[in-house]
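INFO  loader      accepted 1 record
INFO  loader      residues=486
INFO  predictor   begin
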Amino acid sequence: MASDLIDACVPAAGTEDAMTRLRADDVLVVTTGQQPGLFASPLYAVYKALSAAALADLLTRRWQRPVVPLFWLAGDDHDFAEANHAAWFAADGTLTSWSLRERAPDAPLTPMYREPLGPEISEGLDTLEASLPASEFSGETMAWLRSHYRPDATVAQGYAGAMAELLAPFGIVCFDSTHQAVKRRAIPLMMKAVGLAQDLDRDLARRAADLTAAGADPKVPVGDGATLVMMESAQGRDRLVVDGTEVATRRGHQHFTLDALQTLAAEAPERFSPNVLLRPVVESALLPTVGYVAGPGELRYFPLADPLYQRLRVPQQPAIPRWSGLVVERRVDRVLDKFGASLDQLTEANQALEARLVRSHMPPEITDAVASLQQAIDEGYDVLLDQGSRLDSTMAKPVEGSRRQALAAVDHIEKRLRGHLKQREATELKQIGHAREAVLPDGKPQERVVTVATFRARYGDEFLTSVAAEITAWYDAALEGEPVPS
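INFO  predictor   done
INFO  writer      dumping tokens
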């Protein structure tokens, strides 16, 4: 790995061996990454990093050469609505969240490496600390977060420091993509992409059409004349678009000839960054990358980038699925055991488990009576419909209407009885609701909502160690029998 890029690695105690291996002539890297978030969230970013570590270790053993996991810190990202909040489970198990200020719709799209946390971050940390369960690990968890998420730090700095310290014990190196050395190295490729913008746009439009026709819509807009490069201006991070013979910023409407843009890029490379499709191409161009660990969304759009590698003449690294998991705590297991339910039943839509619980508590005499009434009504009205229609052809409609009324009356009685049962069983229903919230907070996948601080404060570093072991076993099983490249 180029010596100047080593300087872009975020220092952290425990990465000394990985840093030594990065300096080796034959080193390879497995990359993954994430845009910054508060309190090292969301949880799946940690899963991505540990996935890269497991894969790098497996390849090191197989190939007998150094392979280092590298976490690409996307500090250029400007999506403040994604980065300004965090959620966690409080001591009582309820989902709690906190958010920084909101950004006005017409405000500049400041990238996270320039966006200050400000003094309000102290309020967020206090809120987190007050709601976490008292444990032997909660103090050190808060000390870890407070040392990085400081009022004088930016969102990206807080995230970079926290992630670097968290991941160091697993040999994972965090890589600051906003570092000057990275910017200088990436500028030639980005300017090449701007110069080929129209060709690349046509390539991407054709590729997107092919993928969509094959049932694999990448869901990334292309073919609109935009380049794959972003530039910081008065409007913040702004997309460069082709405008006749010139290039312009989409929001700020600043125009540049290609020569003028290249001059500006040489003078201020920090103002430029790749978009989501170009970023893995830049990674492959700058780093000795043998694999890109990606989440489901990234895997969906990654094939769209195929023509970028070809036209920009960059080797394409394979995209490898990250591990995805669900933390099922003892409190959830106790609820499942109590009601004899499975995890799949707990996560079924429309609160099906609650409905089954209520039905299971209904006296069988009532259940049998309701079923008998419904059957008797249907059978009786079938006779009325058949015989009555023979006597009077106009009888079909009133008979069917009467049947519906009779069935509705039985259904109304059953619903009232269920309502009374629900009131009596409110405690049990609440227990199921809390258990569901633990695995599907706000109805979303747990890993996409909560911060790792949720579980680190409860179980300490053993939590990450256990997750890492699960991920290692998963990759070992998935790649068992795969041939070793020569």
